[in-house]
Specification:
single chain; globular; alpha/beta; five-stranded parallel sheet; 5 strands; about 180 residues
Length: about 180
């Protein structure tokens, strides 16, 4: 099967030396697109989406691409709206390893979001390759490996959400046991 096409719609508000998407574009791992050029049917990583990314999104990601919105989370609502006909998907629970948001839940860099997506879609080696481009990158995979494996082992969005809930409940039970 062909590889997932990696695309980025970039706001260019970060320092280009620290922007993970800009680095991946420079290295040829990611292609920048402008809003009018986003292929119809592309899968858009959108933290506000109602549906979770899952292996059922693989075909669309190969055909039309997987698009990361490279902008500040604080400015997401002002980011150029991407056109209709796209599949908006949220990533399940993961923990950031990037230097800016290390250890914070759901505060992933664009590179982490793309690597997590590739992992979930079954392209684990490619996910590891993307993360190898950053000193801290392999830490992201190792910190989240159990979660990523679980998300990648199921087929549908509903199953990804169920896996996420099981893991979060287990973490909460562990915390509760330590405090009692």
């Amino acid at each position: 099967m062909a590889d997932v096409r990696l695309l980025a719609l970039m706001e260019r508000e970060d320092d280009p030396k620290k922007c993970t998407a800009a680095k991946l574009v420079r290295l040829g791992d990611l292609h920048e697109v402008k809003a009018p050029r986003i292929p119809r049917g592309a899968v858009v990583l959108d933290p506000e989406a109602e549906k979770a990314l899952s292996r059922e999104d693989l075909g669309a990601s190969v055909r039309a691409g997987l698009l990361v919105l490279d902008c500040s989370w604080n400015k997401l609502d002002r980011f150029p709206r991407v056109r209709a006909g796209l599949r908006h998907r949220a990533l399940p629970f993961l923990v950031a390893a990037n230097p800016t948001n290390f250890g914070k839940a759901q505060k992933l860099s664009s590179a982490e979001a793309l690597a997590a997506s590739l992992y979930i879609l079954g392209e684990k080696q490619r996910a590891e390759h993307l993360m190898s481009r950053f000193k801290w990158g392999p830490t992201f995979i190792s910190m989240n490996r159990e979660r990523l494996e679980e998300y990648a082992s199921v087929e549908t969005s509903a199953e990804v959400v169920a896996a996420q809930q099981r893991m979060l409940r287990a973490v909460q039970r562990s915390k509760d046991e330590r405090t009692t």
